[in-house]
Specification:
There is one protein chain. This protein is mainly alpha-helical. The protein contains 21 helices and no strands. The protein is globular and about 75 Å long. The two termini are 23 Å apart.
Length: 809
């Protein structure tokens, strides 16, 4: 708490000193720069246009109906999962996991409010200095809190249904049939996906339809910053927590030669909690924020780059109706795919668990693409007199929609249990042990960055070419809009993307619930289950099914990561455009435009600085995992009782959870404030330096995240092959694969995944920070002085992220 107080004091001093110093240096030009970008956006009158005989306002109201239907769909699937049969021993384990998850989320909620104080202070200072009315300032703060509440709320919903689905999946496996083991996690994932997207879309439509046009920009900005803050904090802390627990639990298999999820291991409950904190809470909040921020960026672009109010209305209606349509397409595709999968695999003992998930992704993508063209033709047959733009815009957004299906296919080439790269990791481990295991995983990660990078570049190139054919007639910088639409399309089929990502934590937990319930040791349990539920128990097949399904869960957790980081990078170009428009007077100032070049030294220096921050962030997040895992392993080794005990005590398990929580919050606090003060410092130094910095963190972050996520995925599933296909647990080959997996844990689930919200938070928050720096005066004494102060403070947290997190003897 002393650290928080010091940081708050530094920021408060800066905020309080600024007005006094500003009065001396910039009073004579206080009116030369007013707040721009989203703050000044005034939406056009949506009660215009003709869409199926309705105005823009009228047809968007139907979107609210679809949102309500989406919420009802999520509630229906939640109820269906909750009402599935489960043995009490498994339900008790799920309840314990949920209790520890609740304790973790409550702590995170308190932490989020503390972080909001920092963001709120800067927002208040900026808007106060630039003369915004107190009422509008209050609206920004209120909507930032709503954004945080949205990210936090959907994260809570995710862990609630996942901790119901895990025990139901474990129990369903006892039937010895494959389909229920696949169906339940996917059903819970669709519940999360539909609830998340419907809530996000409901919020954004409500702002669009019911908030007066002159206040909409302020609301959207506050909402986007709040949800971005929530996602960044929950992703970073969740990623650290889950990998501390995972490594602590996994290393016991090597040290004591015990089985996976041994009930005597106090780290297993923490590992289950971590599966939800890192693989459910983080991705759910991240998906919520990504979906929202991408929409806000496109709304901002339309209002800044398109001058004709009638075309603004058409484009706004088109974008939101695309999202409404894709919600319906996702729900319909899931129902069709589920019926097909049930008829195909309903009675089989074994199946390839990846097939139903793959067909769902492709079916949704194809249906969405077809409906995109049909609906676009009906909604915008003519834009500005051009009758070709409807199919050009449809083609651009289709590049993003297809990316949501193509990128997972490339990811599977490097992470699936069926892939050559993963099998190469296993083969190299046979003679080379952990050393060659790790090297082969690094090879997979590097190759994946090449292929995925070219894929994203290719899709963006197509979008750019198509956009150049006619979009320039109705807007400035059409290529930027095209890139934003690609990012928009990445998460167009959001419910399905979130569903296949949420599949993983349920399958992972289901294995643990099975072992921790010790159901095989319960007297007369087979007769009891046959009497109560009408089927004969098959323990052997049940365990095999759960292990194989976990491999599919690992693969599809990996497939969602590049999709999310791709949206951050592609979408960042659209958000950066708002800054460029403000700095160049709407692209009319030739001197300012010339500074967007490496010939302008600050711009080049910014490009170099962004890479430095990405590599620091990677190291800082992994250091937090390393120190926390050391303490967890230390505690578990001292307290594990292998003789005369059948399961670890609840107290010991909760202690491991406490260790994970402590180091997750310490690590997250240092990292977040390092990013926060770096953003302020670099934005104040020079605006074009900051633009270079934003571009740099997006590009460095893209490749670092893809490399780390897929290398980690390859190591993870190499271990899964050794355990399920080769059945070589407890051997030197298994030990080598466990070591590789523990190296990959922070790669794939800590550092890589947190880059997405960090990039978007930095860009969004940077909109305010760079405007504030320009308002005070680029190069002015106070601006340079504040930049120096903020940079020193950021260096302090960078220093603490290693030296304050080192393992102490």
């Amino acid at each position: 708490m002393r650290l928080m107080q010091r940081a708050a004091m530094v920021l408060t001093l800066g905020v309080l000193m600024a007005p006094a110093l500003l009065a001396q240096e910039t009073a004579q030009d206080a009116a030369h720069h007013r707040p721009g970008g989203e703050v000044n956006i005034q939406l056009p009158d949506l009660n215009t246009g003709d869409f199926f005989g309705m105005t823009g306002h009228g047809i968007l109201m139907t979107g609210l109906v679809v949102c309500v239907l989406g919420l009802l769909f999520g509630l229906w699937t939640y109820t269906a999962v909750k009402n599935l049969p489960v043995h009490q021993s498994m339900a008790d384990v799920s309840a314990l996991i949920y209790e520890t998850c609740k304790a973790y989320l409550v702590q995170q909620g308190k932490f989020l409010l503390i972080l909001e104080l920092f963001i709120g202070a800067v927002m208040i200072a900026y808007f106060w200095l630039t003369g915004l009315e107190p009422g509008r300032i209050a609206i920004v703060i209120i909507f930032s809190l709503i954004g945080i509440a949205g990210s936090y709320g959907v994260a809570w919903y995710g862990i609630r249904i996942n901790t119901l689905a895990n025990s139901r999946t474990a129990f369903a496996s006892l039937q010895g049939k494959a389909f229920p083991v696949c169906d339940i996690p996917l059903r819970s994932g669709m519940s999360v996906g539909m609830m998340l997207i419907s809530v996000e879309l409901l919020f954004m439509l409500a702002i669009l339809l019911f908030i007066p046009g002159e206040y909409a920009g302020v609301c959207f900005l506050g909402f986007a910053i709040g949800e971005s803050l929530g996602a960044a904090a929950l992703r970073i802390a969740g990623g650290i927590f889950t990998k501390i627990a995972d490594i602590g639990s996994d290393l016991m298999k090597v040290v004591f030669k015990i089985k996976e999820d041994d009930a005597r291991n106090p780290g297993v409950i923490a590992d289950c909690t971590g599966d939800n904190a890192g693989d459910s809470v983080g991705p759910t909040a991240d998906g919520f924020e990504t979906y929202g921020v991408t929409g806000v960026a496109l709304i901002s672009f339309i209002m800044l780059a398109v001058k004709d109010p009638a075309i603004q209305v058409q484009l706004l209606v088109w974008i939101f109706m695309m999202r409404v349509m894709m919600v319906l397409a996702s729900a319909g595709s899931y129902l069709v795919n589920n019926a097909w999968a049930k008829s195909t695999y309903g009675n089989v003992e074994k199946m390839n668990f990846e097939v139903p998930l793959t067909t769902l992704v492709w079916l949704t993508s194809i249906v969405s693409v077809i409906l995109t063209y049909v609906l676009s033709y009906e909604l915008i047959p003519s834009l500005g007199g051009n009758t070709s733009l409807w199919w050009q815009l449809s083609t651009v957004i289709t590049c993003g929609t297809l990316a949501g299906a193509i990128i997972p296919e490339f990811v599977k080439v490097f992470t699936s249990t069926h892939s050559g790269h993963v099998k190469e990791v296993v083969t190299s481990s046979r003679e080379g042990g952990a050393s060659l295991n790790i090297l082969s995983g690094l090879v997979a990660g590097n190759f994946s960055s090449y292929w995925l990078g070219l894929t994203i570049m290719g899709l963006m190139t197509i979008a750019y070419i198509v956009a150049s054919w006619g979009l320039g007639e109705i807007m400035v910088a059409p290529a930027i809009f095209a890139f934003g639409l690609v990012a928009f399309g990445f998460l167009g089929m959001g419910p399905v993307t979130i569903a296949v990502d949420s599949y993983g934590p349920v399958t992972d937990n289901a294995q643990s619930v099975y072992e921790l319930s010790q159901i095989e040791e319960i007297p007369n349990v087979e007769a009891e289950i046959q009497k109560s539920h009408g089927f004969k128990v098959n323990f052997k097949v049940a365990k095999e099914l759960l292990e194989e399904n976990d491999g599919a869960g690992n693969t599809f957790k990996a497939t969602a990561k590049p999709v999310l980081i791709g949206t951050a990078v592609v979408g960042a170009t659209t958000m950066i455009f708002a800054i460029i428009m403000a700095l160049t007077g709407g692209l009319t100032n030739a001197d300012a435009i010339a500074k967007l070049s490496i010939l302008h030294p600050p711009f080049l220096l910014g490009l170099i600085t962004g890479g430095a921050v990405i590599y620091w962030f990677t190291g800082a997040s992994m250091q937090a995992v390393t120190t926390g895992a050391y303490r967890a392993v230390e505690f578990i080794k001292k307290n594990i009782k292998l003789e005369g005990s059948t399961k670890a005590s609840v107290e010991d398990s909760k202690k491991v959870v406490e260790i994970c929580t402590i180091y997750a919050q310490r690590g997250m606090f240092n990292i977040f404030l390092g990013v926060f003060f770096s953003t302020l410092a670099f934005a104040f130094i020079e605006p074009f330096f900051f633009i270079g910095y934003l571009i740099s963190i997006a590009l460095f972050g893209l490749y670092q995240a893809i490399f780390m996520a897929n290398a980690g995925g390859a190591w993870d599933n190499a271990k899964k092959i050794v355990e399920t296909e080769l059945k070589m647990k407890g051997t030197p080959l298994h030990d080598a694969s466990v070591v590789g997996d523990t190296v990959g844990d922070p790669f794939k689930d800590t550092s890589s995944v947190a880059m997405n919200p960090v990039i978007k938070f930095t860009t969004l928050f940077g909109l305010l920070a760079v405007e504030l720096g320009v308002y005070i005066g680029t190069g002015a004494t106070i601006t340079v002085g504040l930049a120096a102060v903020f940079f020193v403070v950021s260096m302090y947290f960078v220093y603490r992220s290693f030296y304050g997190m080192r393992i102490e003897n």
